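Example 3.2
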Amino acid sequence: MLDLDRLAQASQQLIEAGRALDAASQVPATGGNFSCRLSDTLMAVTASGCHKGRLTTADVLVSDFAVRLLGTSRKASDEARLHGQLYEDLPEAHAILHTHSRAATVLSLCHVGDTLSLEGFELNKALEGVKSHETPVRLAIFDNTQDIAALALDVRARLQVDANLHGYLIRGHGLYTWASSMTACRRHIEALDFLMGCELELRRQR
């Protein structure tokens, strides 16, 4: 059953996240998509093609995790299935943000390998579960593809063998991260973008 109070709260959280991330140049040109878990089977997710800095409640759609939409003729992004897959596989996840920052886009292309490890930064502790700057923050990296169903399966398979990921990058595309609340998820985005910027600067200095 859809909890309308929870939907109203989630809609406001998504709108506020959109404004903040747009102001931080994290979601240019209608890029990115956001969601909140509504229940064990439903999520609130942003509609396709919306400018994230100008979201309204009409731009927040309700769907199940397979992206079967409820009560609307509007379209969710194809990438909404990536949100649904994460909610299926990570019961602790209650918010997911996908952004297109410059640092994420560039670093995902220049890094060799399928995992980016960010180590030695004090801001690592901004991530849920990280208690020390010595704890690596790890992001999986996947090749970009238009086959979202296949990508969701690849993410699922990776999570089954690597439960300590704090998010993942899609090459030349952007970042996905999740957390137990929208407040924590926004903190993750801010911290990860800062950390990736630091990593890029360090690589320039080498």
